[in-house]
Predict the structure of Histidinol-phosphate aminotransferase.
Amino acid sequence: MTDSLDALDRLPLRDDLRGRSPYGAPMIDVPYTLNVNENTHPMPPEVVEAITEAVREAATGLNRYPDRDFRELRAALAEYLGQGLTEENLWAANGSNEILQQILQVFGGPGRRVLSFMPTYSMYPLLALGTNTEFVPGERSADYSLDAALAAEQVRRHRPAVTILCSPNNPTGTALGLDVIEAVYEAASEFDGVVVVDEAYAEFARDPEDTALTLLTGRERLIVSRTMSKAFALAGARVGYFAAAPAVVDAVTLVRLPYHLSAITQAAALAALRHREGLLANVEDIRRQRDRIVARLTELGLEPASSDSNFVFFGGVRDSRGLWEDLLADGVLIRDVGIAGRLRVTAGTEAEVSAFLASLEAHLENRR
Ligand SMILES: *Cc1c(COP(=O)(O)O)cnc(C)c1O
């Protein structure tokens, strides 16, 4: 590693990339992987069948480039979201990370800022770096909430070209009221700022009707980003998407790579959407496991944040790194997001959550 780092240093890297670290959630093979907020329930066999059949069929046409505008997938995504959206409002890419990258490529860039509210998704600063956009780390209240006045004031102060609101927020799990999104959009409208609401975890919210999709009408610079990686249990397929005014869709076609969404990805995503009932059937159980984690951590005297997602962020630990290591030694991988005294755990299956709680209870006294 040292040798390769030296070799890296000798390369003519961009100055702003020198000394930087890549996104690095550990990938460790353990019995209980609860660190990257996947849907850990096994894929329903009928969905595996449907995807296999769709991909087999797509394989017969792989000598040709795929549909560059993937209208069938966009129409299926619009139908899934409802809200009167059509394929003209939808766009997809290889994960919502690529969606966000494309948005920053179009609306960010040199001399422009992107504002988000910390702590939040660790990819935002990295996407800003990659697109040469200045990242502005905004603030939340001490309990990680963000009210309309606090958010709008920071938007007016920093005048970012793009504001990213993550709701429910990663790593805290907290959702934003629609009044916050409205206030941020109004503040950003004073200088034509774009507002992105990253709703990667929307399906797990206690009130899933409370989505920024309901605010799209009449807001031409509002973008709502979603993913099939979490509730849809399709993290490995890499499918993210957004809904916005048709002009925003036209704008990202300026920067997307031609044929960025492979025929296999399109086929797999379409098959998954056709079988969404089977895939989304586990969402209710995941919500129950999340609420079970929050309840038990509270009983244990820890401080779990209120969660509308499929994970729980908790404090009240003295030695969070030590506890993370204890759990790993028991085969339970959770997430240390680098905030002292706090850890994040994904709500998995009932058995996985039981294993996490048993390990936690065995080691907590030494680490609190
Ligand atoms: C997991 C996650 C995503 C999803 O990324 P994909 O590229 O779609 O897998 C997006 N935003 C947040 C906040 C996430 O936690």
About this structure: The domain at 26-43+278-366 is CATH 3.90.1150.10 (Aspartate Aminotransferase, domain 1). DSSP finds 13 helices and twelve strands in the chain. The mean pLDDT is 96.
